[in-house]
Write a structure and sequence with these properties.
Belongs to the GMC oxidoreductase family. Pfam families: GMC_oxred_N (PF00732). The chain is of the alpha/beta class. It folds into 2 domains: 150 residues, FAD/NAD(P)-binding domain (3-Layer(bba) Sandwich), CATH 3.50.50.60; 208 residues, no CATH class. 20% of the residues lie in helices and 22% in strands. The longest helix has 12 residues. The relative contact order is 0.17.
């Protein structure tokens, strides 16, 4: 007989871990988390050592290793998409850079009918609630949340040269890319604490794993959603790839990410009816948006050879690897304790398009920003608004005043 839970959360990634924490805070509520990947064992250095981040990415034991179909606008090339296959999801294998969306993107979304509460004034309290910014809390940054955010030291001579170079190119510095002014260059916040990766699992899930009303199963792949009419009432899943199980739920919450969640919806008959009919799936709810409109930001690695021993290069020799491992294992310090993407910034890609006046003082320009990450010996430029890059320039495109010019301040709403 299938067990019943108030909530079944499909996916133990960033969203799933946060929801499991919040929903299980009510002791009268039962919560089941089903994660297809393995546990993020504390003894696994590939997950927890920040500098080891290149190893789980592309490894089938940690990564779903998704690949796109041939992209017509990229000469038929396929784009690789790393997605975490481990408790904590992609937050357990990513580069640990913590960055919010651009404030004016939220203003743009809020301009659409029915989306008014997505403006920056409404989402800012949630951003603040989730974080403990160790550089200092203020009107824009939180100081008591579960995500403790270290600021990258960026004290290598290479970072000093980087900051000098961007200013020579006409770009400003900023105090905080997640604060009052995103446009500009600065040391980055990162999900690293005490020399270890601070994944969503470590921040949200592990601190509450002893709750009696919370059950977490890893190596549990959901194969289908049980439907009664148009309502989801449970899921079928495999434990360890063999044992067939069913969990009934008052509410099914899909947290399988940009690929996993649409796939499960479509398998359950929720999606574009014509697409489902083409592969023999009976339509339950004709919802054309499912599986559509995915955007990702391409990045280009630009690497340099240093004439002086100021990069990571000298540390990559086999003779130094034991020292790196020992320093991190016993002291959580040294080269292994950093993700090495310690600084970077945002700058406009083109003249921006006119948008409504923001509801909070926002200094960023009104267009897409290009992110540049800086590592020791590499620069990674990437477009964060590919939809803007595809849009032809409009006659009304224009600068909206000098960078740093604020809008009309209002009292920010409080959400508890």
């Amino acid at each position: 007989m299938a067990k019943h839970y108030d909530y079944v959360i499909v996916g133990g990634g960033s969203a799933g871990c946060a929801l499991a924490n919040r929903l299980s805070a009510d002791p009268s509520t039962s919560v089941l988390v089903l994660e297809a990947g393995r546990s993020d064992f504390s003894i696994d250095p590939l997950v927890h050592m920040p500098a080891a981040l290149p190893f789980p990415i592309g490894n089938r034991f940690y990564d779903w290793k998704y690949s796109s179909e041939p992209e017509p606008h990229m000469g038929g090339r396929r784009v690789y998409h790393a997605r975490g296959k481990v408790l904590g999801g992609s937050s357990s294998i990513n580069g640990m850079i913590f960055q919010r969306g651009n404030p004016l993107d939220y203003e743009r979304w809020a301009a659409d009918p029915g989306m008014e509460t997505w403006d920056y004034a409404h989402v800012l309290p949630y951003f603040k609630r989730m974080e403990n910014c160790l550089a200092g809390a203020d009107a824009w940054r939180g100081g008591s949340g579960p995500l403790e955010l270290e600021r990258g030291p960026a004290n290598s001579p290479l970072f000093g040269a980087f900051f000098e170079a961007v200013q020579q190119a006409g770009h400003p510095l900023t105090d905080d890319v997640n604060g009052y002014r995103q446009e500009g260059f600065a040391p980055f916040d990162r999900n690293v604490r005490h020399g270890k990766r601070l994944s969503a699992a470590r921040a949200y899930l592990h601190p509450v794993m002893d709750r009696k009303n919370l059950t977490v199963h890893t190596l549990s792949t959901v194969t289908g959603i049980r439907m009664q009419g148009t309502r989801a009432v449970g899921v079928d899943y495999l434990r360890g790839g063999k044992l067939k199980r069913t969990a009934m739920a008052g509410e099914v919450v899909l947290c399988g990410g940009a690929f996993g969640s649409p796939q499960l919806l479509q398998l359950a008959g929720i999606g574009d009816a014509s697409d489902l009919a083409a592969v023999g799936v009976r339509s339950v709810v004709d919802l054309p948006g499912v599986g559509q409109n995915l955007q990702d930001h391409l990045e280009v690695y630009v690497q340099y050879a240093c004439k002086q021993p100021v990069s990571l290069g000298p540390w990559l020799s086999k003779t130094r690897a034991p020292r790196i491992g020992a320093e991190w294992l016993f002291f959580k310090s040294g080269v292994g304790a950093s993700n090495h993407f310690e600084a970077g910034g945002f700058h406009p890609q083109q003249r921006p398009r006119r948008l409504p006046q923001p509801h909070v003082p926002l200094p960023a320009r009104r267009g897409a920003l290009r992110r540049v990450q800086a590592g020791l010996g590499a620069r990674l430029p990437g477009a964060h608004r590919p939809d803007v890059l595809r849009r032809p320039r409009q006659p009304e495109d224009q600068e909206q005043g000098p960078a740093g010019a604020p809008g009309h301040p209002v009292q920010l709403p409080v959400h508890r």
